[in-house]
Design a protein that fits this description.
Keywords: Membrane, Transmembrane, Transmembrane helix. By secondary structure, this protein is mainly α. It has one domain (about 5-79). The protein has helices at about 15-40, 50-79; strands spanning about 5, 10-15. It is elongated and about 55 Å long.
Length: about 80
C-alpha cells in the first residue's frame, strides 16, 4: 500500500487521496456546468468565464473515457 506520512505519523493512503481529489474536481465541474446552463438558458445572470471551464472538463472526461475504454478493451483481448 502506498502511504504518505502525516505530522502525527499516521499513514494516508495515496490512492484514496487521489480519488477524493478527483471526486472534488468532478463535483466542482458539475457545479460549473449547472451555472453555465442556468446562465445560458434562464434569465439568471451568467457567471463570466464558465464556458472554458466546462469545455476543458468535457475534453478531460472524454480523454479519460477513451483511455479507460482502450485499457479495458486491451484487457479483454489479452485475457
Amino acid at each position: 500500500m502506498i502511504t504518505w506520512r502525516g505530522r502525527e505519523g499516521d499513514g494516508v493512503n495515496a490512492r484514496r487521496s487521489l480519488s477524493l481529489g478527483l471526486a472534488a474536481a468532478c463535483f466542482l465541474w458539475a457545479i460549473a456546468v449547472i451555472g453555465f446552463v442556468l446562465g445560458t438558458y434562464t434569465p439568471l445572470p451568467s457567471v463570466a468565464d464558465l464556458e472554458p471551464i466546462v469545455t476543458a472538463g468535457a475534453v478531460v472526461a472524454i480523454l479519460v473515457g477513451i483511455g479507460v475504454g482502450l485499457r479495458d478493451g486491451y484487457r479483454s483481448i489479452v485475457d
